[in-house]
Amino acid sequence: MVPADWIGLGCSDHERSSDPLQEVSESTTKLVLDKLLPDTQYTVTVVPIYAEGDGPSLVDRGKTKPLGYARNLQVTDPTTSTLNVRWGAAEGSVREYIIIWVPVAGDGEQDVDQVSGTTTATVLKNLQPNTEYTVTVVPVYHEMEGKSQSKNGKTNPMGGVKNLQVVDPTINTLTARWEPAPGNVRDYKVFYKAQPAGEERLETVSGGTNSLVLRGLESDTVYDVAVVPIYPDVEGIRQAEKGRTKLLGGVKNLQVTDPTVTSLRVRWEAAEGDVRQYNVIYAPAAGGAEAMTPVSGMSTNTVLRGLTPDTEYKVSVVPVYADVEGKRMSENGKTIKRFHVEGGAGGGGGGGGGGERLGGVKDLQVTDPTTSSLKVRWEPADGNVRHYRLFYTPDVGGVEDMEQVSGGTTNVVLRNLLSDTPYSVTVVPVYPEGEGLRQTEKGKTLPRTPPRNLQVYHPTPSSLDLRWEPASGRVLVPGGVTTTPLDNLLADTPYSIQVVALYADAEGPGVKGNGKTLPRSGPRNMRVFDATTNTLTIGWDHAEGPVHQYKISYAPMTGDPITEFAMVPGNRNNALLQGLTPDTPYNITVEAVYTEGPGGSLNGNGRTVGLLEPRNLRVSDEWYTRFRVAWDPVTSPVLGYKLVYTPTGRPQDSREVFVGDVTSFSPHNLQTGTTYDVQVVAQYSGGSSRPLVGQGTTLSLTAMDLETEFIGHDKYCIKWSPHRAATYYRVMVAPVDPSHQGRQEVTFPAGHPRYCFEGLSPDAVYTATVFIQTPNLEGPGVNGKERTLVKPTPVPTNPPTPPPPPTIPPGWAGAKADVVFLIDGSWSIGEESFRKVVSFVSNLTGAFDIIGPSGMQVSFVQYSDGAKTEFRLNAYQDKGTVLSTYQLIPYRGGNTKTGMALQHTYEKAFSMVNGMRRNVPKITWRGTAQDSETRTSERTDGYTVFVVGVADVDFGELQNIGSKPSERHIFVVDDFDAFNTIKENLITFICETATSCFRMLEAFNLTEKTYASVRGVSMEPGSFNSYTSYRLHKNAFLTQPSTEVHPEGLPPSYTILLMFRLLPDSPAQPFDIWQVSSKDHKPETGVTIDPTSQTVSFYNKDERGEIQKVVFDSDRSRPCSMEASTRLPRHAPLPTTATTNRNHHRYHYATTTATPPRPPPLPLPLPLPYHHATTTRYHYLHTVA
Fold this sequence. Notes:
Blueprint: E1 4-11, E2 21-25, E3 41-49, E4 58-63, E5 71-76, E6 83-88, E7 94-103, E8 111-116, E9 121-124, E10 132-141, E11 149-154, E12 162-167, E13 174-179, E14 187-194, E15 201-206, E16 211-214, E17 222-230, E18 239-244, E19 252-257, E20 264-269, E21 277-284, E22 291-296, E23 301-304, E24 312-320, E25 329-334, E26 362-367, E27 374-379, E28 387-394, E29 401-406, E30 411-414, E31 422-430, E32 439-444, E33 452-460, E34 463-469, E35 483-486, E36 494-502, E37 507-516, E38 524-529, E39 536-541, E40 547-556, E41 564-569, E42 574-577, E43 585-594, E44 597-607, E45 615-620, E46 628-632, E47 640-647, E48 655-660, E49 664-665, E50 675-684, E51 687-688, E52 692-697, E53 704-711, E54 715-721, E55 728-735, E56 744-749, E57 754-758, E58 765-773, E59 782-787, E60 817-824, H1 831-846, E61 856-863, E62 867-871, H2 879-886, H3 898-909, E63 922-928, E64 944-950, H4 955-961, H5 966-969, E65 970-973, H6 980-996, H7 1000-1003, E66 1017-1020, E67 1029-1032, E68 1037-1041, H8 1042-1045, E69 1057-1058, E70 1060-1061, E71 1071-1077, E72 1083-1090, ...
Parallel strand pairs: 60-61, 60-63, 63-64, 64-65, 69-79
Antiparallel strand pairs: 1-2, 1-3, 3-4, 5-6, 6-9, 7-8, 7-10, 10-11, 12-13, 13-16, 14-15, 14-17, 17-18, 19-20, 20-23, 21-22, 21-24, 24-25, 26-27, 27-30, 28-29, 28-31, 31-32, 33-34, 34-35, 36-37, 38-39, 39-42, 40-41, 40-43, 43-44, 45-46, 46-49, 47-48, 47-50, 50-51, 50-52, 53-54, 54-57, 55-56, ...
Helix pairs in contact: 1-2
């Protein structure tokens, strides 16, 4: 036996005496040695200890690991006030990490923070800008601290923008441009004010912007412009520069040219700034009214027409801006005078003759110069000019060129000229007689000016956009293009750009400009929205250039600042941060990551919401034991909701239920008429919200307006307001003094809310209590008290003669039937007519001899929207109670749903539960009036249906409902006051049905509902669709004790009707189809079928106890009706009828016999050798074969 093991532990360089010992049980085979020194080798010895002594030892060595440390420590992502610290987890079970940071220069205090052992990153905040820090991370184990690791990091300086410029002045705008400030700039504030004492204005732009146009400035004014970078937690250094708007100027190089007799052309160079239009004002220089012509701000020339010939005009051009006019510039021009060509006289002393001189063109003009063309215009020369010759040559020398045009031409464009060259142009009209006068004018082509106003704009990290004003002259394709982008550039790089115009013959002069691409900026304009208890949604404006992805880091700003990370593709600018702590501020950083490396970052804050509670509590659908509580859900994800409901003032009865993530719930089993305090609490994974409170009240199930209706010396009548939900009223009365008599309690259907207590003691105080009952509930009682009157001394009077009881015919004295009165209680009848129908039903019931199990049982069903059994077949045992109950039946009203009522009658009113008896006739009495919704397909097999129609009814429909023959079962009256005209006949036919009918099939359980329980019987289609057919197989043997079938024995006379069909496998020998036998199975009476001779025999015992028999065959038979039984004198010949139909036999016969003195009840076997039997729905005895 090994009771224990001894384990020794010692360091390799220690004595054995200092080694710790530890004992374990004999079943232990594994042990953890704790509290050891790190990085130390140990010798472990295991010695088994026996009762007799120590066993042989087992020795081995092991070495603990060295102290762990944070691996790959990094200090990254500096801002002006924060540093991110990341590290790889230290080995072992780290309880926490201690982070220590201190300025390297030693001019600051040391700060310490702690994070959990599972955290591997944190953010150091509230640091000094432009300061280098030493950051140390120490893992802390449960036993000791690990090795420390240190790393330096430096915060960004609080810099300002670089290279601030105020450029592109106009008369009312200045453009401020700058290079970005270092660090994570959130916004820039741009301040500007007019000198010397203007009001300072401010505009704010996002951190990714590096230019801003300042608008709405005053002209010719010096402005101070300053730009301040805004970091997440501090403002940067302010940088300032000056700029001056331009003076309101006028047009340049104004010229008045191309004079004609009635016009002058005005040309100018555009004024600076955003000119809306030019106003051209002109008037004769010698004096006269001024006229004005407006010209679009895009035009630089116009023609003044309708002028006076040979008149000098002063022309002024004024540029018009949005809110001011510019400087007015003026120039003079003169129209030419009208003239005509006259003939001259030759000189000679003695006179002489003269001839006409050939004329020249008039008003010759050389206009519209370009760099390579001049346009020549003239007014035609007088006379018949055949054509014109144009001679033109550079004034500096060169070959003269000539062009010739038709005599109808008055202008031509000279092309392919030298640029910036004066030309002399001569026009000579050519007549048939010769050349006319030469007219010469000078013109000069324009110089090839370079493109102007080169602008480099919209810089991105990889592109610049250019635009310029076009060069003069015909520049080669694409000479019409004045903008272009420069792509695939290096980020944050200055570029020198030159635009040169290309002509067909050479390059023109160029224009130069400078531009610089942007650095790879970070995202801009962070937005934090849609905060929930554990999520934040963030969005941002994209960083410039092809961003590969965005890196998102976020950490709580309180408690344990564990930084977590998420990545999204570069085409997304939003993200959902999940798994956050409720009601906690978070610091969020979004960094753009390019293919070449990281770009700028954007920092912002967000806060999760607290544990929101639901809102807008609503209580509806109030009922006696329930109500519905609904609420608006919270906007955050929840585990579900808890509902607490407490009866007001009874906190000990408080109940609560977790209903899940739904927005409504109905608590059940509440107390009636009770106000409940309701609370709805949202359940989160991190706790519960504050409750949303409200109240709900269940409906009252108490009688209202209880009052005394009558009080006598022995009678106390009370009444109360009807309750809509009541199905029964339970009323009770009790004397206050127990010595008085009259304590009573009764429950009755809710119809008339009143009751009278009789048999009370005179001059006694009684307490009456009313309870309202529903099918499942009873409300609290309502009490009333009254004192009965003192009993007066009666005055002797003769008692009134009671009315004679209804005469019951002797033949009806033993009538037994179950009768259901089906009465229409809808709005189409009306309450007054309904009461008349109920009164008539009461009169019919009064004519029955016995009400109860030994006689007639009655039930009353009222139908409208639904069907309701007012009282069941077995509800009452005496006639008086039934007749008084009729007066308490309420009129219900509603729509007429007859089909539902018929189904209710056959399935529920006629049921064993409601007191239906076996082996007695089933009679339905239905009153109808103008009802077109009856479903005539309802089965009435086994029932006798009497129908009473009122007024204009469909008799064909009544025939479908009522039993046959119609003259005995269908009655029609003119109105609701004419029921007495059918009363006697109706009572007679009902009572005849009740006394003449016994259903043999039902006695042997051969019905549609019960046949399946009978062995050897199946239901099959028969010869007639209206009859239910049963097949009796070889193993069928139906027997019943006569005490159950005929408890009083066979009647003195009876009729047997059978409808059956012999099958091919039926036996050929005679057999009894119906038989009454003694206890020792000896036949007493029966009906015998002989298939071979096709005869029917009836036998019984005569008065001497001997068998007597009568045989019915075709020679002695005559037809008898199926609609009525044939009754014959005793021992008279019995008629029969036998017909053959195809391959089966159908026998219709009636027999009447007088039996000997009634024997004691005997067993009644019914051997049925596999025959096909069919029931009939007429009111006769039914048997089967």
